[in-house]
Amino acid sequence: MPITNNLNAFLGAAMLGVISAAGMFLVEHYRQERRRYEMAKDMARMDKELSIVKKDLQDLMNKKRERLLSFLPFVLPHRQYLTTNGGAAPPVRNSNVLHLKWGEGTFWGQKKKTQTVSLYQVLADIDRKSNEEVVEELNSCLVKLQDLCLEHPGNAELLWRIGKCHYKLLEKSEDKEFIQQQLKKGLDACTKALELAPDSGDAHKWTAILIGARSDYVPMKERIADSHLFKLHVDMALRHLPNDSTLHHMLGRFSYEVAGLKWYERKVASTLFATPPNATFEEALEHFMECEKLSNHDWKENKLFVAKCKVAQGEYKEAVTWLDEAKACKQGDCMDDKIDKEVNALLAKYNSYR
Ligand SMILES: *[C@@H]1O[C@H](CO)[C@@H](O)[C@H](O)[C@H]1NC(C)=O
Ligand SMILES: *[C@@H]1O[C@H](CO)[C@@H](O)[C@H](O)[C@H]1NC(C)=O
Fold first, then answer.
1. What distance in angstroms lies between residue 68's CA and the mean position of ligand 2's atoms?
2. CA distance from start to end of the chain
3. Whose CA is nearest to atom 2 of ligand 1?
């Protein structure tokens, strides 16, 4: 689980780093002597953003048509997967939605006799497979989910899982066009899930994660709007899933990045684009501590961020204690290399406060 958690949260909050970096970038432009040159470059950038806006408009106009298409399954798969699943942990909380049985009625026009696998079990299987992070499995989960959507139209439990699979697929890719396709399909599915079930914590969670992931592909103004939207969906998700440690970590990352915006970055962003959200390091720390409390494993990245909040608050001695804890967590995956680097750099810097 730590692997999944880390990646989700990392991408979910990544956009805020981008906002911060972009604000800084702009300020540096005006600070430097080469002002005319920089202004020319700004003009080029504005032009570029304008063309992105134009493209977005075009996309929006095409959206309705594409949205329909994106829900059509590509193939009609076999149904061998409808075998019983050896006691996988029930993944879904809202059991009302799930008391649907297979085999009552027709199946592609064919009468089924005794299919006893519930949708609940099928979803447990899909959840297990989609958490394994294997591209082939994710693709087959998607096909299954799309297929199930035909059997059970208007089921939010299916739709947010489609969003999740699209996210997991884009996470595995470097191909920008593919990533954008997955983002769009994932967000369409989650949007539809939320229309059907506005109280679904999972639908809000995956909507937030997908919004976070699209930040690299939208112009700055929209990115700031997205940051507000991200917060809104994480808050909504937490209302229904108050014990989800990933959500607390995401909110911590959000608050940490926003709290780190300098006043002049906020000014530049507000003037040129839109008002960024507000948050403090205290709030960020609260969320990370809540994550510590709820997480069922030692989460290295979360401990690093507790330490970073402590550094931001000038509590270096405590920061070092948390860095030590982060360092003591076992190595999970390659994501941890990046985290280790930061832990070690901070330890080197604040070691004297022990
Ligand atoms: C969250 O955890 C607390 C304490 O373990 C528990 O009492 C509560 O029912 C949980 N809430 C949900 C929505 O699962
Ligand atoms: C952030 O805080 C400032 C100052 O307290 C306030 O003027 C601004 O409206 C706030 N912005 C948001 C998005 O809440």
1. 39
2. 32
3. 243
104-108, 241-245, 251-255: which has the minimum mean pLDDT?
Answer: 104-108
What's the pTM? 0.70
Chain mean pLDDT for the chain:
77
The total number of structural domains in the chain stands at 2
H or E segment at 110?
Answer: strand 110-111
- 3-class state of residue 306 by DSSP: helix
Dist. CA 32–CA 34, nearest whole Å: 6
DSSP letter at 68 equals H
Last residue of a domain, one of 137, 164, 197: 197
In this prediction, residue 280 carries a pLDDT of 96
Pocket of ligand 2 from Cβ distances under 6 Å: 275, 277-278
Q: How confident is the model at residue 104 (pLDDT cuts 50, 70, 90)?
A: very low
Distance (Å, rounded) from C-alpha 36 to C-alpha 43? 11
Is 21 part of any domain?
A: no
Q: Give 110: exposed, middle or buried? Use CB within 10 Å, 0-12, 13-18, 19+.
A: exposed
DSSP state of 104: S
Does some domain include residue 34?
no
The SS3 of residue 226 is helix
Residue 204 near residue 233, CB atoms below 8 Å: yes
Residue after which a domain boundary falls, among 180, 197, 214? 197
Judge if 290 and 189 occupy the same domain: no
